Amino acid sequence: MEAEGISAPLSLSAEFEGSFAYLTVRDRLPTILTKVIDTLHRNKDNFFKEYGKEGVQAEKTAISFLSRLRNELQTDKPVLSLTDNAEDSEAWNEYMRRQQDLMEDGRPVSWFKSPWLYMECYMYRRIQEALYMNPPMDKFDVFKEGKTQSYFESQQAIKTLCTYLQELITNMENMTEIQLRDSFLKLLQISLWGNKCDLSISAGQDNSQKSSPIDSLPDLQRFILVDDSSMVWSTLVAAQGAGSSGKKHARVDIILDNAGFELITDLVLADFLVSAGLAKQIRFHGKSIPWFVSDVTKQDFEWTIMQTMAANHKWMSASGVQWKHFMKEGTWSYHDHIFWTLPHEFCDMAVDAADLYSTLQGSDLILFKGDLNYRKLTGDRKWEHTVPFDQALRGFQPAPLCSLRTLKADVQGSAEDCVHAVFPENQGHGFGL
Ligand SMILES: O=P(O)(O)OC[C@H]1O[C@](O)(CO)[C@@H](O)[C@@H]1O
Ligand SMILES: [Mn+2]
């Protein structure tokens, strides 16, 4: 749907044979679906133990739903309305009608003819429909195994990062502003690179963090296209300005992406922001259902903090204890609005999720993690590479925002990583890579 009066190029789509969208829909999405079916098969005995015959029957029916879905995808069938009467079903079905109105010569909305962004999101929502329709499978997270494995495979990197965080916190009061700034920029890059650990690009293959997240920074520097993070720092510093009641309470919103090591990098960054007095409140935004294989759900968020607390490592445990305290006292909070697991481009948010847009307008800085968020920020359209980032946002600017994304889809086109930052007109800055 077009944001008011701002035109945009075509959406990336699998209709362009040979494109990355085409290869994703033809090859990677069926592979992910097959792995989901295998996961259900492999857990058959557990379902029997936990739910008896009813569990096994539900697993069998869910598998038949998913096999049918895979066939629909592979044979480019018209997409179907959702029939699970979930909280977001009507929003999905309304979006399908909207997409149908956009189709030329009345062709049906289908996997290889419609926007890649819509079809990929739709697949993950249809997986959830197969579970919703077959209780007691409705609470089962088909991606949980991969997400927890990614956490356990990254232990050494997590220990290194938590140790680094505790060293920063111990030395914090002696730090000059330049040292604080440099530490922040280092943690921002670590959070950017944490985005490499994503299970949808790898179609579920292990993609955990093996190397030291700190020592690898110098080598990775050359892959950052144009680093605008210094403006992110300026925004944070400006947000410390005195408010009407004295010290302003800077609020940072982090739109999360993947669980596992990437989530740890985001929690470490958030801990630093609060410990350095750069933010008084951090709002984390995750997914309300399992999504794009490794995206963070509330269960993943809570499990990761508990797991870190319980680690047999002094600084991991100290970090986890601190994070649980931040959650308990409300300095940190977790939110999972359904909009983040709808297919909409973010320029639609002000209309289609006005409550969320209004919430984000209260932020001093919004950090968007990952490739899917970047694709939604820019509408996953065939922009020229010279288009300024804030133009591609087509009016989506609830607050100063920054995209921390390792490039996994065409919508930027270059092979490097991106740190974007953009500021609403009233701050006069509009820039990107
Ligand atoms: O976890 P991230 O960084 O959002 O990556 C997910 C992205 O990776 C891909 O799976 C590969 O391009 C996309 O389909 C999706 O946008
Ligand atoms: Mn992801």
TrEMBL record:
Keywords: Hydrolase, Manganese, Metal-binding, Methyltransferase, Nickel, S-adenosyl-L-methionine, Transferase. Its EC number is 2.1.1.-, 3.1.3.-. GO terms for cellular component: nucleus. InterPro entries: ARMT-1-like_metal-bd_sf, ARMT1, ARMT1-like_metal-bd. The keyword Hydrolase applies. It catalyses: L-glutamyl-[protein] + S-adenosyl-L-methionine = [protein]-L-glutamate 5-O-methyl ester + S-adenosyl-L-homocysteine; beta-D-fructose 1-phosphate + H2O = D-fructose + phosphate; beta-D-fructose 6-phosphate = dihydroxyacetone + D-glyceraldehyde 3-phosphate. Subfamily III proteins have a conserved RTxK motif about 40-50 residues from the C-terminus; the threonine may be replaced by serine or cysteine. This is Sugar phosphate phosphatase.
